[in-house]
Specification:
Elements (H helix, E strand, L loop, with lengths): L2 H25 L3 H6 L6 H13 L2 H13 L4 H28 L6 H8 L4 H34 L12 H49 L3 H11 L12 H8 L9 H9 L6 H32 L10 H9 L2 H39 L5 H22 L7 H25 L5 H20 L5 E2 L2 E2 L4 H18 L1 H6 L1
Antiparallel strand pairs: 1-2
Helix pairs in contact: 1-8, 1-14, 3-8, 3-11, 3-12, 3-14, 4-12, 4-16, 5-10, 5-11, 5-12, 5-16, 6-7, 7-8, 7-14, 7-15, 7-16, 7-17, 8-12, 8-14, 8-15, 9-12, 11-14, 13-14, 14-15, 16-17, 16-18, 17-18
């Protein structure tokens, strides 16, 4: 690796640590400060923090890799995500910001659900916390896989005979830096680093496709190269079945139930600021998704035109960064990839930690724990979840998009219908909420275990979020109807 690249990466790591130390001085004296930044996030910080923590390494690895391998038809995933995110900002964001503060100043999603349905408070806090920790361990592992792939692909011979192109070393170093600023600075550190990382990511996703397309002769040449190998490569519909279409756009359903994203809605400084945050966040997301699609499509043309070999499609961003740019720019681009990975990992670790701290430790072990003790336990829980994720990510054959899709579906089905209905349907009951949580998570896990997401009834697989989301919604409605009188007298 060139010295310039190393300098860029070193500056990026130093910046993240400095932000963590700044946040440590500003907002770690109380649980509200450590877990929600004092509910005082600037709209721009909330917007880019939600976007950066959402997109993760799959934006620069998984999505470009899918487009590289299968063509423009995979762009339906991005379209579905954009629509889902927009609806999330419109329906969930303002209501969640208002209701979490009004209902006992809830600091976590499990706390909000317990306050919303006091007759089932204990069951909701424990069940939702268990689901959060399990699926976030898998989701965090997906980010660490991205870090492992980055080191495995890019860091050979960094200091002469010292070779850092080791998958597990990449995982440990990625986790180590994230743990440093997350454990020290809490939610504010995570949100501020997300903001910086979101800016880096969007610049990289604008820069890379433009350089590739211009360098390879323009859009006409790129298009001709791709259609020569496959006339349908640039088609949005070729070979797309109805089930395949639903499975792609259904990714958008997941937004309503992602704790690491919707917790940003709880932390924005006011309900009135939500509209500003939404406009900033959706603009950022549109540019980022278009850029990621461009990386996959233009990258495929570049590989063909230059006779390159790419064994893993999910590393196309890394290949382009290493072969097309000056070392300083390469370092910036690799920092963008690390930013995508680290922004999501830090958010997921903090949400998992908050559930373990507030919904287990304070609930069962130390109800009278001081604020300082709670913050320190939260830091310890961050490390515990990280270790579990490292163990899951230890398989070098893991695919980023596959791990993300499983965890995304688990959260989307378990919490999506629950959050939507709890915010908008006054007649929903606590028993219905518990039924929705258990049903959504259970159906997703069973669907994956049975392999129906790969093949269903002799045809193409159905993405597990679809049956999970529908089943959870029905369970909430039916059980709420059946227990309405019981809830009214509780």
């Amino acid at each position: 690796m060139e010295t310039g690249t190393l300098v860029s990466l070193a500056l990026y790591f130093i910046l993240m640590i400095v932000i963590g130390l700044y946040a440590w001085r500003k907002s770690t004296d109380s649980s509200e400060g450590y877990l929600l930044g004092g509910r005082n996030l600037h709209p721009a910080v909330a917007a880019l923090s939600a976007g950066a923590s959402d997109m993760s390494g799959w934006l620069l690895l998984g999505l470009p890799g899918a487009l590289y391998a299968a063509g423009l038809v995979e762009a339906w995933i991005g379209i579905g995500l954009f629509v889902g995110a927009l609806i999330n900002w419109i329906i969930v964001a303002p209501r969640l910001r208002q209701q979490t503060e009004e209902l006992g100043n809830a600091l976590t999603i499990p706390q909000f659900l317990a306050n919303r349905f006091p007759e089932k408070a204990l069951a909701l806090r424990v069940t939702s916390a268990v689901i959060i920790v399990i699926f976030f361990a898998v989701y965090t592992a997906a980010g660490l896989v991205g870090g492992g792939k980055l080191f495995e692909t890019s860091f050979a011979g960094l200091f002469g005979d010292i070779d850092l192109s080791d998958y597990m070393l990449g995982i440990w170093l990625t986790a180590g830096v994230v743990l440093a600023y997350t454990m020290v600075g809490g939610f504010l550190a995570v949100s501020l680093t997300d903001f910086v990382q979101g800016c880096i990511m969007v610049v990289a996703l604008i820069l890379m496709p433009l350089v590739v397309v211009i360098g390879d002769g323009g859009t006409g040449t790129v298009s001709a190269t791709l259609t020569e190998i496959d006339p349908d490569y640039l088609s949005l519909t070729a070979g797309l079945s109805f089930v395949g279409f639903l499975s792609a756009v259904a990714w958008g359903l997941g937004y309503f139930g992602q704790p690491h994203i919707i917790v940003r809605f709880m932390a924005v400084r006011s309900v009135e600021s939500v509209r500003t945050a939404r406009n900033i966040g959706m603009s950022w997301m549109a540019v980022a998704l278009i850029g990621a699609i461009g990386v996959g499509i233009a990258g495929r043309a570049h590989v063909i035109q230059n006779g390159l070999v790419l064994d893993d499609p999910e590393t196309i961003f890394i290949l382009l960064a290493n072969t097309l740019f000056h070392p300083l720019i390469t370092g910036f681009l690799l920092a963008a990839l690390l930013a995508a990975i680290m922004s999501t990992i830090s958010s997921q670790l903090l949400v998992s930690s908050s559930s373990l701290t507030e919904d287990f430790y304070r609930l069962f072990l130390r109800k009278q724990a001081s604020e300082r003790e709670t913050v320190n336990i939260g830091r310890a829980c961050v490390a515990l979840v990280a270790l579990a994720a490292i163990a899951i990510a230890s398989d070098p054959d893991s695919q980023v998009l596959g791990l993300v899709s499983n965890a995304w579906a688990g959260f989307g089905a378990a919490f999506g219908p629950l959050i939507l209905l709890s915010l908008t349907w006054k007649r929903m009951t606590g028993a219905g909420a518990v039924a929705g949580l258990v049903t959504g998570a259970g159906v997703v896990i069973a669907w994956i275990a049975l392999g129906w997401n790969a093949e269903f009834l002799g045809g193409p697989g159905v993405y597990e979020i679809i049956p999970g989301f529908v089943a959870a919604g029905l369970a909430i409605w039916l059980v709420s109807k059946a227990t309405a009188k019981e809830a009214a007298t509780a």
